[in-house]
Amino acid sequence: MADSTMSDADKIRMKRLAKLGGPSTSNNTTPAAGASSGDASAPKDATSPPAQKAETPSSTTQNPFSQLGMSDGQADQQEKKTAPQIKVSPRQASPAKRERDGSEKPRAKPTESLETWQDRNLRQIFRLTLKPDESRDISGHELVFLASTREDLVDNKAAIQLNTEVLEGAITEAASQAPGGKPFEYLLGCFKRVSRAIRGTKFSGPEDPKHDVLRETRRLCMSYCVFAITMPEMFGEHVPTSNPLVDHLLADPECDLGICTDFLTEASSRFEEDDTIKEAIVGAAEELSRQLSQKNMLQDYQNYVRGLRNLLRFPKIVDAVTESPMWTPEGVEPQDIETKTLLGPFFRLSPMQSEVSQSYFSAPKTRDRTFIKNAQDAVRMSLRTHQTELFQMSDTVVRAGPKQRERILNWFALCVNKNHKKRAMRVDYKTVSSDGFMVNVTSVLDQLCEPFMDARFSKVDRIDPNYLKRDPRVDVSDETKINADQKAADEFYSSNKAEGTSNFISEVFFLTVAAHHYGTEAAQTRMGSMKKSAQRMEKDLEQFESERHKFVNDPRYLARFEEHASRIKKQIDSMWSTIHATNGVLLDDLAQARSMQFMRYVIVWLLRLAAGQNLPAEPLRIPLSDEEPEIFKVLPEYFLEGITDNFKFITGNIPWILTPQQCEEIVQICITFLRHSEYVKNPGVKSGLVTILYYGCQHFGNRPKGVLGDLLMGSEFANKHLLHALMKFYIEAESTGTHTQFFDKFTIRYEIFQVIKCIWPNTLYRDNLAKEARVNTDFFVQFVNMLVNDVTFVLDESLSAFVKIHDLTQEVNSEAFMSTLSDEQKKEKTDQLEDEKGRAKSYMGLTRETMEMLILFSESLADSFTMPEIVTRLADMLDYNLETMVGPKSANLKVENMQEYGFNPGALLSDIMSVYCNLSGKDNFIHAIARDQRSYKAANFTQAARIMNKRRLKSPGEIRTWETLGQKVAEAKAAEEEEEQDLGEPPDEFVDPLMADLMNDPVILPTSKAVMDRSTIRSHLLSDPTDPFNRMPLKIEQVIADTELKGKIEAWKAERKAARKAEKEGKMDTSEG
């Protein structure tokens, strides 16, 4: 045979013979039968085993030619011919035939025919045998004997070998005998082995026929795997009741029972030609989902997640799965989304599920903080891993193609649109999706937003403001809008339809904002309400347990009592377990940092929309336009509410995760919408902005001014606008429109006080405040009026509470008095005393803060505090409280354990005196004190100075200022009395109808036509913008100056003074005469 036609194996053999000294020959020596099966040489001799002589080593010296595949005779003949010419040594010294460590290299294996190779490999792949006495292979694997296939081969007088022509029948026969009656499990193992064979076989080239054999084998394997799934009855009577793919998807893909990448690649490639395999895989995904819906995080859920993830790695499978009727079933109820949609059970898994939380936080009332913290850390780690896997699955679907992306966006939209009731005033949690499910949805959407949320906001302009005008996925039809009623919003969206389609960035941005509202924010709200419920139940249980003694002597009722008490305790434990789990989930640094990054984009996008400025490329400029953009007004309120809720939670719990950039943006949005509070309708949202600033100024770690305090001190934007913004909302908080507005306003104002105290050391704030006060007088007078009102109220409530505590304590401690009361009356007295103590504690805290603010502002805004409409009420209030503190009845303020209430009479007196001293240089203030006929007493000034000197609570300079003020007031008082005596009783038409004082600047009210002094109506309108006589709306600009009456008053005063003067002079003449 020519050298060009000689096989590689033949060439190697000839080279070795030449090297050994043998004659070169072109004859191709065929391997002995020992290299192949004995069945091949004698097909009819079915029982004789194959001869293996050439492969059996000699017991003495090994013949080297036997290793080359020669027969013994050929080897002997060759030895005789070459014996004189060569010297055979038992070990070859050639380096080419030895390993580096000196060991002998293995000899080349004898070649085998394609038929033999095919038979051997097919037997190994399918673990079959055609020999009835062979039960296991060399590795110990159990073999399946194919009796029918062997019989067919014998009948056809064919070699007793397997090949691709008989393989289909062999597969059918083998699968019918599959161990355990599981044909698919058997065929899956065969498929994996043939796939490994394809990867592991060294082919001579692309045309190597072995390629075709193995590819055809794998094709048949896959076809019969499909039959085992879709038509299991063809393999016998053992028909599985469920999709056999499911169990194998749950197994590790790398093990023999797991669904591997090769299998899914081959299966997905057949989707176009065979719908049954597509249906089988989709059915398996659906069954995975259904089974997982019955499990929680305490069970083996990871295999289900891995199984679905493996399926979703293939775009064709993604397309098929997302077309499933179970993907977004029509008419699904909110509470069923997490169990009846395909993705629902995967997103449902959470430590916030009742069974899981009770396992992590068992007996929560008995656990210390370390245990709770460690359990929360474990909760966070488990959920963080799971949420990452959920994101990877979702991201795979998004990247699979446009259609698949649309379908998963539809599923996310279903989750948020169906759960609007999660933010209702009263939520029935049986009719909405669980908090754990919605938190996972929110987390995944946050991660889907990360690719476009770069630090430079380069893609913020891709978020389309017209998204909601283009038939959006997100349903906002019944959502409260930022500053528009439902009718106006409906008209705007219906009459201004936008053209085109929305991009993916806009879609996922609006979905994520909605998910935050119904997900993490709803969970925060529920956790807060659950804490209150648990605490209330604990009080009820305590009261219930106090009744135990009534049932001790009756076993029947005692058993019922114990049962009821045990049920309450279990409910309390369950609630605290859920609270701890929810808190652990929500305090995940990584998840919240990702959430804050998203909220940065929401903030900048909202400010761009409201201000109409190119943020953040250019700095924000306020004031904003008087005309609010319509597209901003009709946005859902939860855009702003989400910002306030998220940052309130972060600044109040884990402020250290906030970055400087995030702090700067949150300060900007807080100041902007507090300064322009008319842009936002809901006072609760605006109060949330104050709360963010308040929490941001609280001390934590080594930051005494909190996470925002230093920024507020140094920010040019804050220096210019923060104080005005806070003062404006301080005024607006007087009426929040809620049934709790009276208490809300004090909470809001308390938080405003804390922020102001934090920034007050910066003189820039005070300088800007003084400048603005001279320009915007009305605004500052209105602020001062509210501050004076608050001080008046809290001082009165606090001091009156101490008087009542003093009196009630004396009564309760008096045995003589208590003996005259019944048991019910005694309990009533005791309860009343406790109520007053609680009231005193609450109001005393507010008193300290409001007095501190009054001192700060009266020092900087003395002119505003001494305006005619303010000064009289302020002086009357200060005189009244000074009388209470140092007058004859001051002893009634003495109570036991004053420190328990935070009550320090000396410090409070010092604060009141500081306000006096701050305004002591204003004549209006001095005359207002002098005109106070109810509470002013010169002796009070003297007594206060004595107390300050005795306790050393004021410096000598402050004492001198106080005494000087007392002298000025006394002089003014004498002058006032003299003037009043000179004027006498004024005519009724000159007297103010509300204050009963002589009017100085009379005005006519436009609707009631009543006449009042201008200062009186201005003071009234500061608190109530209506005509006091008919309650019609009224502004100070609408009053009409009564110049005629003013002239009459001036003439009357001049006449009375002249008459009085003449009378005095006449008396003096008479006395001299």
Lay out the secondary structure.
Layout: H1 8-19, H2 38-41, H3 72-82, H4 114-126, E1 128-129, E2 144-145, H5 147-155, H6 167-176, H7 183-200, H8 209-230, H9 244-250, H10 261-269, H11 275-292, H12 302-311, H13 315-322, H14 337-340, H15 344-348, H16 354-360, H17 369-400, H18 402-417, H19 435-449, H20 486-495, H21 504-518, H22 520-545, H23 555-586, H24 589-611, H25 630-633, H26 638-653, H27 660-675, H28 683-696, H29 706-714, H30 716-732, H31 741-759, H32 763-775, H33 777-813, H34 815-819, H35 823-860, H36 862-865, H37 868-886, H38 905-918, H39 923-931, H40 938-951, H41 956-983, E3 1002-1004, E4 1011-1013, H42 1014-1023, E5 1040-1041, H43 1043-1072
Parallel strand pairs: 1-2
Antiparallel strand pairs: 3-4, 3-5
Helix pairs in contact: 4-7, 6-7, 6-8, 7-8, 9-11, 11-12, 12-17, 16-23, 17-18, 17-19, 17-23, 18-21, 19-21, 19-24, 21-22, 21-26, 22-23, 24-26, 24-27, 26-28, 27-28, 27-30, 28-31, 29-30, 30-31, 30-32, 30-33, 31-35, 33-35, 33-37, 35-38, 37-38, 37-39, 38-40, 38-41, 39-41, 40-41
Organism: Saxophila tyrrhenica
Biased composition (Basic and acidic residues): 96-116
Coiled coil: 527-554
